[in-house]
Amino acid sequence: MASLIRPLNISSQTRALSRSTAVASQQIHDPDDPKQVALYKLYRPERVTPAKRGVELLKTPRLNKGMAFSIYERQYLGIHGLLPPAFMTEEQQAYRIMTKLRQQPDNLAKYIQLDGLQDRNEKLFYRVLCDNIKELMPIVYTPTVGLACQKFGFIYRNPKGLYVTINDNSISKIYQILSNWPSTDVKAIVVTDGERILGLGDLGAYGIGIPVGKLALYVALAGMQPDWCLPVLIDVGTDNQELLNDPFYTGLRRKRVRGAEYDALLDNFMKACTKRFGQNCLIQFEDFGNQNAYRLLDRYEKKYCMFNDDIQGTASVVVAGLLACTRVTKKKLSQEKLVFLGAGGAATGVAEMCVRQMQSEGLSEEEACQRIYMMDIDGLITKNRAAHLSDRHKKFAKELPDTKNLLEVVKTVQPGALIGASTVTGAFSEEIIKEMCAINPRPIIFALSNPTSKAECTAEQAYTISNGSVLFASGSPFDNVTINGKLYKPGQGNNAFVFPGVALGAVLFKVSHIDNSLFLLAARKVAESVSEKSLNEYSRIYPRLKDIREISIKIAIEVAKHCYANGTATLYPEPEDKELFIRHQVYDVEYEDLINRTYAWPAKDSMHGFPVPVIRRSSMDEE
Ligand SMILES: NC(=O)C1=CN([C@@H]2O[C@H](COP(=O)(O)OP(=O)(O)OC[C@H]3O[C@@H](n4cnc5c(N)ncnc54)[C@H](OP(=O)(O)O)[C@@H]3O)[C@@H](O)[C@H]2O)C=CC1
Ligand SMILES: CC(=O)C(=O)O
Ligand SMILES: [Mg+2]
Question: Is the ipTM value over 0.90, yes or no?
Answer without folding.
Answer: yes
